[in-house]
Specification:
Number of helices: 8
Shape: elongated
Structural class: alpha/beta
Strand content: 15-25%
Number of strands: 9
Helix content: 25-40%
Strand order of the largest sheet: 2-1-3-4-5
Length: about 270
Amino acid sequence: MKAEEKYMHRSLELAELGMGHVAPNPMVGCVIVHNGKIIGEGYHCKYGEAHAEVNAVNSVKDDSLLKDSTLYVTLEPCAHYGKTPPCSDLIIEKKIPRVVVGTVDPFARVAGLGIQKMKNAGIEVVVGCLQEDCRELNRRFFTYHKKKRPYVILKWAQTIDGFLDIDRTAESFGQPTWITNTLARIAVHKLRAGETAIMVGTNTAQKDDPTLTVRDWEGAHPLRIVLDRSMRLRSSLKLFDQSVPTMVFTEETVPAKRNLEYVQIDF
């Protein structure tokens, strides 16, 4: 493995620590290397707070070394003022001479501007180290900005012979049919923690009475979305307990409640 790929792999590991906490921002990791030794590390920890580059720079004990170091970052440093100042400005200010970028930021207010700003300041910028891995890490972010739609995961449990459920009567509604095991359930909760929203249809809500929260993993609960065209779901379902923000798509006109919004659409 090349040295640059080694440091970018470490940056990707750091970036993943922000999963479930930084959306709608991307997950970003950063490593600063001086004479073959990592002297600083950082990642974007929480939406609205310092970016990975800032945390990495702040972790360096002797910032005089920055003038002779290489900064590795999974995503192009930002070039605009948002909730925080531009990271490209900080890199220029600290006189870091070389920057290795995993991939260009697809966000229109960055999209190469951060790279160009650093190049204009005389910084050597290398783009494309482990590019596919860096894009895969932020596939939700890239899908939104490039395709103008959400990144969608279709998830279900199925027996080896192709069944999703038993043939249940109304009396057996309200309890899920467990096909998979505890380890698989933990994996599902980890998946939930990394997503913005989770949606179920009317029959799943009615038959399984799911909670759709993150309980077996650490992270934020996704927005719960329920399809209920004719408002036939009973109000006692866990989805309507108002403990987590929930959105119901229906044809009916229904007043909102705390943490419970009804969206009228034409099915």
